[in-house]
Amino acid sequence: MDKLIDKAVTMGVSMAGGMLATKVFEFGWKQVTGEEAPKHDEVDNVSIQKALVFAVSSAAISAAVQILSQRGAKTASAKIRGAYGKQSEV
Asked: By residue range, what is the domain housing residue 78?
């Protein structure tokens, strides 16, 4: 049961962190460049330099969010387990 709770918490924290990071990154991209973030349907309209900068910065943020969400999920799972006492048995 504890592994199920760990997985559920990890998935929830990762999804929430990913969605939030995406929105913040797109907002920041628009503030810095004055343009919307590149999308799949606009491939021909984006220069290779912008595409590379977008890809590298997006990947770096994604990696950071993944690490931070895993740490946060581990802490949250420990708190949840602590609230219910020792390991639960089913």
From this structure: 1-16+48-82
Domain count, the chain: 1
- Look at residue 64 and tell me if it is in a domain: yes
User: Are 17 and 69 within 8 A, CB to CB?
Assistant: yes
Instruction: Tell me the average pLDDT across 52-65.
Output: 91
Residue 40 resides in a domain: no
pLDDT tens, 3-14? 787 788 888 888
Q: What is the pTM of this model?
A: 0.69
> Within a domain: residue 41?
no
